[in-house]
Amino acid sequence: MALQGSSSTISEQQLHKEERLSNTQADVAKQSLISSEEWLQLHGLKSNKLTLKQILSQIGFPHCEDYVTSLGRLVSSRYADGLFPRIYRTEDGRAYNLTARSELIYQYVEHLTQAVESYKQRMDWLTSKSRQVFGVIVEQSITIVLDFGGMLEEELDLCRDALIMVLKEQVAYIAKFNIIWASQEPVKWQENAVPVTAQSIAAAISWLEKWPFELPPSQAGCLDALLEAGKDTTIESIYYFVVGDIPEKSKELLLQRALEIPHPICTVSFNARGEGTIALLKDLSAKTHSRFHAFAERTECVEFPTFPVKDGDSVITWNSRKLKGKLPPGAEVREDVFLIWREMEEASSTLAQIQRLVIEPPKTDVATTDHGKCCLWSPV
User: Which candidate, 281, 293, 270, places its Cα nearest to that of 138?
Assistant: First the structure.
């Protein structure tokens, strides 16, 4: 009996441990589903006092200079020779007298190294799995409108798999959702957005898996689906998922009537063949104060900004990553990815400059004024 009790206790402890782990993973997922702007407010260099200017103000002070009328030029402040043995010039030409010990500078090197790694991880996250296909869902209550009018029959399974991945990885961590399929008549999964639960996600996946391939909806069918989504006052945003191209003759009416919808419309282009559809969807998202995202299947390598990443003993670049998609013609680099990349570039540059302080401490520069006095020199 004692053995059974012990086994039961261990089993309960294991269940509690797994539950805590699951809750932790869910919390991390929810915290990640924010825009790059919001993410940088939490983890950016400025927020964490890690910009070059902020660091230099903590480890020294600016080397001052003033205009001397009698000389007719800028003259640096005079300090006792050797009192501040190091002057560090930033890349923009400013000079600083450094007063901090090496231990403090090493701490900033460590913080910057961690920041660069954090930005690389965010880049990986943004450009993988459902985020690569759909972008990042940042609202808590949404309706996804599916426009399969330009879909090829062989793309059905790919689209279904992509949407199921979005449901599992992103929608599962928001508050409410609904799905509307643009057909001859709008097909609604639910009348209005419903709370997200394990059961509702499973039901939505089952609904998606039963889709047949059918003829494209009428020109009015896609617009009707969008207008139907716009009637739900409980949602924050509509995600318009378009496979293939939108017929040229329906573009003007679609844009005109969609602007009547009271919700932002996030547009997602999947496997667009021409640039016209990309241009329309970008315009629609911009005019409804929302976001545009594009994905296209690919087999070749996608081009990203190049920077070194340690991988064991080798150095690889983002260009050699094996991704499943690329930007279609007419689409630009995603803004959310660019913002993180730009922050990472600044962090890498700052790290290199701060590392030089401890690897090769700069020497004091001494210049002689017209009056024979010594002063520490900084570029004008």
Answer: 293
- Give the model's pLDDT for residue 313: 39
CATH for 139-333 is 3.40.50.410
Would you state the pLDDT for residue 314?
36
What CA–CA distance (Å, rounded) separates 74 from 71?
Answer: 8
Give ranges for CATH 3.40.50.410 in the chain.
139-333
- Amino acid identity, residue 211? W
- Using alpha carbons, list the distances in angstroms from residue 83 to 79, 177, 366: 7, 65, 12
Position 352 scores a pLDDT of 93
Residues of the chain with pLDDT under 70: 1-31, 63-93, 213-219, 298-331, 360-380
Show the CA angle centred on residue 296, arms to residues 35 and 311, nearest 5°.
70
Instruction: Compute the distance between CA of residue 282 and CA of residue 371 in angstroms, rounded to an integer.
Output: 65
| 284, 226 contact by CB (below 8 A) | no
pLDDT value, residue 125: 94
Long-range contacts of 118-125 (CB under 8 A, 24+ apart): 118/43, 119/340, 119/341, 119/343, 119/344, 119/347, 120/309, 120/344, 122/36, 122/39, 122/43, 122/340, 123/318, 123/337, 123/340, 123/341, 123/344, 125/32
pTM for the model stands at: 0.74
Query: How many Å apart are CA 46 and CA 54, to the nearest integer?
Result: 8
